[in-house]
Specification:
Helix content is 49%, strand content 7%. By secondary structure, it is mainly alpha-helical. The chain has a single domain, classed as 2-Layer Sandwich (Double Stranded RNA Binding Domain). It has a two-stranded antiparallel ribbon with strand order 1-2. A hairpin with a 4-residue loop joins strand 1 and strand 2. The longest helix is centred in the C-terminal third of the chain and has 21 residues. Belongs to the ZNF593/BUD20 C2H2-type zinc-finger protein family. One of its GO terms (cellular component) is cytoplasm.
Length: 92
């Protein structure tokens, strides 16, 4: 059986944010702040092209649009929606 193409978040040298941390970033105030970051030379694309759902910076708007159409982004959005609804049932 072929190996997985992607590496899980647990195995990476620099793991990304967990689902609960990303859900906090999706709150309207934090989301707007993350999407409208000041220019930073150290980040790809100056930090201007950021996907909040996946916690990734992109070099150009075209790269970000390609990412938005991709499988990994769609899976992340679906996973975030699933987690959000499960929390709703726990609260009530």
């Amino acid at each position: 059986m072929p190996s997985k193409h992607t590496i899980s978040n647990k195995v990476r040298k620099r793991p990304g944010l967990d689902i609960d941390q990303i859900q906090k970033n999706l709150e309207p105030e934090k989301k707007e702040k993350l999407e409208n970051q000041p220019f930073d030379e150290d980040l790809p694309g100056g930090g201007q092209h950021y996907c909040v759902h996946c916690d990734k910076h992109f070099a150009s708007e075209n790269d970000k649009e390609k990412h938005m159409k991709g499988k990994s982004h769609k899976q992340r959005v679906k996973e975030l929606a699933k987690e959000d609804t499960s929390e709703m049932f726990i609260k009530y």
